[in-house]
Every structure is written in C-alpha cells, then in structure tokens.
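Entry 14. Structure prediction run on the chain below.
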Amino acid sequence: MKHKYGVHYAAWGNEWDVDIKERIRLAAEAGFDDLEVTPPDYVPAMDIEKMKDLKKCAGDYGVEMSWCIGFPKEYDMASEDPSVRRKGIEYTKHMLEAIHMLDGKILSGILYSSWPYDFGNLPDKERTWELALASVRECVKTAEDYGIVYAIEMVNRFEQFVLNSVEEGLRFIGQVDSPNCLLLLDMFHMGIEETSTPDAIRKAGKSLAHLHVCQNNREIPAPCDNVPWQAVGQAVEDIGYGGRIVMEPFVIKGGPVGRDVNIWRNLMADVSQEHISQELKKGLQYIQSIFG
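Output returned:
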C-alpha cells in the first residue's frame, strides 16, 4: 500500500520556534511528501496573511502539512482548574479552525492534557481521565465540523501519565465516541510501554490514523537489533493502514527540544543541517523499503 511519508520539522535542530518555510524546503529537498509541524503562534492566533504565506510555500514545494502538538500546562485540558481547561478547549478550537483554513486534515499529539507533564503534584488518574474526556468530547465536535482527524497520542510513563498504552488509548477514544477521534501510534513510546510493537499496531487496527517512526533511542530509522522493523511493516500491512508514516527523530541536545524530549547528548557525530538531511534521505529510503 502506497503511503505518504513525512518528517517532523524539529528533526533538523533543537528549537521549536523556527522558520517553518525553511523546514518545508528542507523536507521537499529530502524527498518527503509531508512536514509535521507544531502550529506556530500565528496559526491559533489566526494571522491570515502569515497563514496564506505558509500555505503558498507548502504548495510551491508540493509538501503537505500535518499538525502535532503537546499542550503547555496553561492549556491543560485535564487540569483541575476549570479556567485552564476552558483556555485549552478554546485554544484547540481556534487551532482546528486555522488548520482547516490551511487545508489540514489531521491534528495529532497529546490532545487531552499537558506535555511534558509536571509530576510534582500528581493528581488522581481516573479523575484526570474524566476531565480530559469531557474536554476532548467538546473539542472533537469542532474537528468533526471541519473534517479533521483528532488523533490521540499515547506517550511513555516518563512524559505523561493519563494515556500510556494502546489499550488505554482505545478505551479513551471509545468513550469519546467520535469517528474523528482516532489514534497516533509512536514507535518510540510503544518501545517502552508495549511488550510487542507489532501486536500493539494490530490491536489498534482501524483506529490507527497516524504513525510516528524512529529508532528505539529516537535516532533516524535504519536497520538495528532493537527495532523489529520487518515485523512492524508486516503489522502495518496486516491492518490495511494507508495513512501517513512520519519520521520523528530528535538527535540534538540542548534547547527547548532537547529539554522537552530529554536528549542530553548528540545522537549523531555531525549534527549540521546538511548531514542530517543526508541521513534523513537514507532513513526515508529505508522506511519506504519497509512500508512500501
């Protein structure tokens, strides 16, 4: 099955706030169909001129954009504070409207709480689950109105606590009960939380809407002993998944990216943009050989 292949815009650096148009160019030159982006401030703020400029740039390079986010704590839709939850809900609704204007078809990520989570004062999980559920049910109505997939990501226990496993994700979206609320699976997180990544993919089945791929340590995909690439490819084929496959490597220490995803050393000897682009091209060829 022919897939569209994407790359996360932060693969080339350690900052979230960058020139996205430059990253669109880099993605196109590396051969990707899609650039996955955390919406810059001007998107939920509905800066129409900047959005038009971004949309034109993506069109000129023939690169689609998918959107992925982890909410800061001031927008935590599972907060005990109702005013914080309301801010998160309204922020998400504005973002969905803006993504629709940019012809986006999917918003994915930790769309139910905050990330990375501050574990200093851990609330009750079931209570937090219910608060998240009520918020997501409201947000997903806007996603339905705009025809946007609202893809929930389960992340590992060191980054969040509400949803860690595919089983939990399936239970959560079942309770949301919307055809637009589906799952984002991430190979890095599954490598920590699941006993079998291929089995977890099969368990997700038709609920899988988006797939993140990388090495077990977040490097660029390549053959390795710690990732059962062939078995993962077979599982994706078995469930008939035809959606995007997005490479999400983080390899550079420091900066907001390194801090948020806990990269404390460079994972490549040469972290220049030129070298990273070369390795991303190799990684793309490799995952194309796995997933078709």
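The two ends are 6 Å apart (CA to CA).
Filed with the rest of this week's runs.
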